[in-house]
Give the backbone structure.
Amino acid sequence: MTSNTIEFKKKAADVNKERFQQKCSIVIASIAALLLINNMGAQNASSQAAFENANAINTFAFYQAKNIRQNDLNLAATVLEGVAHTAVPIANQEAKRQLVDQAQAFRQKALGYESEPENGEGKKELLQKARQAETQRNLALQQGPYFDFASLALQLAIIMFSVVLITNRKTLYTSGVAAATLGTLLSINGFFLWVRIPGLG
């Protein structure tokens, strides 16, 4: 084998090595970009869960306040009706009628707390809003584990490709591709929740 042939093969090997390293560098950069997107999704899911949890708590508190107020009005109406219908000799019919009217007004106001579609602040509407907030909170909480494991897999892929880049050991390349693919699929699933994996979400 002539020296020219050896030198040609050496140059060809160097070119192939450089191309492979460039390919690894591009892959690492691409995985890093995916990792940033995944982390953004994780932060959004965490913020959404916290926001919807606070929203549900506040709405349930408002609902409870309405419920207490409604009970107070019904109790006051019952007391007034009791006073109006007891045998009180000194009370005239006009006074009794006023007590009954006031009791009916209290009951009507209490009934109005059940549903207020015009402003969405009736008990029915508040309960619906609170449950919707709980649903959104639970959905955001279910997204979290997928983003977490996706981040782990993508970081592992970056490490593997970095080792391949430094040592030129192509045996780790397939493992890096597998980790990157798994991380990408988990991240996509974190955004859309197409598949529910037992133990994750």
